[in-house]
Design brief:
By secondary structure, the protein is mainly α. Helix content is 58%, strand content 3%. It has two domains: 214 residues, Citrate Synthase, domain 1 (Orthogonal Bundle); 98 residues, Cytochrome P450-Terp, domain 2 (Cytochrome p450-Terp, domain 2, Orthogonal Bundle).
């Protein structure tokens, strides 16, 4: 007897995989990362700790963390041909398209590309994690007619990434807040881009192919890009009253308002957004930009009152990145850069316990037609 099949649009609520990487426990308001609460990790650990946790299954001790950092620093640089490639891209190339192209191009330089073992995939994941900040920063600089910024091996991973994008050094508070943002973006169970990476990996494709597909998924406006849209709204508004007016106008016109609501967090605020809200307050205090913080709080209040919607991570990450001096066009690429470690963990898991994804459909077309 064949079990009855039920169609769920968008696979909403459908369990697509078993995983030990992460889980969203909405009832407990907890994002579980290999047994740990992501918010506790973000408050007490750094991004390189999360790299060890996600790729190796446990939080690294200080000596192991130094080894991970050393391995990353050895791979910061890009082949000269990659920078030459960026110079050939059309000036209107979107940063996510440049990122997708750069990752795909890099595949040809990896002598271990056909190694699907856990150790081989982990090595490639670290290599991508090291080079993706360079791809993001320097594809942007070159496309915009500027000279590339060389990575600085004397800086931490997050400090180097931040410097490469902005072209300047940052203080401890700025670096710590940026690092914290990378932690909260690092992994989030099974969003579209992660599912895309796992579907591609299930064909036994290599990690470069899986991540190239994930970039394409994240570029879509229903997945990535909300942080950029939020910041442009805030800049257009300029004041709390101006922001309130923009939001009411959009609500009246039934326009989609980016930065609010989430497919999983429908009745409460994304816990990652709460963390970035506190980070924004600290940064705004230091930089004398409490007006920007107040604008965001105003928007949060309007949307809760009018639509019962709460901010997601992108809503508060956007003004944080703005106060760090990061170009708005790079907000979504940063999302991907931080998520690279989570994607790597999922590709490793998929290859280790693989079954090809091959779903069925509920057919609603005609039958019995004849030529």
């Amino acid at each position: 007897m064949v079990a009855e099949q039920t169609y769920q649009p968008g696979l909403d609520g459908v369990v697509a995989s078993q995983t030990s990487v992460s889980y969203l426990d909405v009832a407990a308001e907890e994002i579980v990362i290999r047994g740990y609460d992501l918010i506790e990790l973000a408050e007490n650990k750094y991004y390189l700790d999360i790299v060890g946790l996600l790729l190796e299954g446990q939080l690294p001790d200080p000596s192991r963390k130094k080894v991970i950092e050393s391995e990353l620093k050895q791979d910061y640089h890009l082949p000269d041909e990659v920078l030459t490639l960026f110079r050939q891209l059309p000036k209107q190339t979107h940063p996510m398209d440049a990122l997708r192209t750069g990752i795909s191009f890099l595949a040809g330089y990896d002598a271990d590309i056909e190694d699907r073992t856990e150790a081989g995939n982990r090595k490639k994941a670290l290599r991508l994690l090291a080079k993706i900040p360079n791809i993001i920063a320097n594809s942007y600089h070159i496309i915009n007619g500027r000279e590339p910024v060389r990575p600085d091996n004397t800086l931490s991973y997050s400090a180097n990434f931040l410097r490469m994008m902005t072209g300047r050094d940052h203080n401890q508070l700025e670096t710590e807040i940026f690092d914290q943002s990378l932690v909260v973006y690092s992994e989030h169970e099974m969003p579209n881009s992660t599912f895309t990476a796992r579907v591609i990996a299930s064909t036994h494709a290599d990690i470069y192919g899986a991540l190239t597909g994930a970039v394409a998924s994240l570029k879509g406006h229903l997945h990535g890009g909300a942080n950029e849209a939020v910041m442009r709204m805030l800049l257009q508004a300029d004041t709390s009253d101006g922001f309130r007016k923009i939001l009411y106008d959009k609500l009246k016109n039934k326009d989609r308002i980016m930065g609010f609501g989430h497919r999983v967090y429908m009745k409460k605020m994304d816990p990652r957004a709460n963390l970035m809200k506190r980070a924004l307050k600290r940064l705004a205090d230091e930089k004398g930009r409490l007006d920007l913080y107040d604008m965001c709080v105003t928007g949060e209040e309007v949307m809760k009152e009018e639509k019962g919607l709460y901010p997601n991570l992108d809503y508060y990450a956007a003004p944080v990145y703005y106060l760090l001096g990061i170009p708005i066009d790079l907000y979504t690429p940063i999302f991907f850069a931080s998520r690279t470690v989570g994607l790597g963990a999922h590709v490793i898991e998929q290859h280790n316990h693989n079954r090809l994804f091959r779903p069925r459909v509920e057919y609603n077309g005609p039958r019995n037609l004849h030529p």
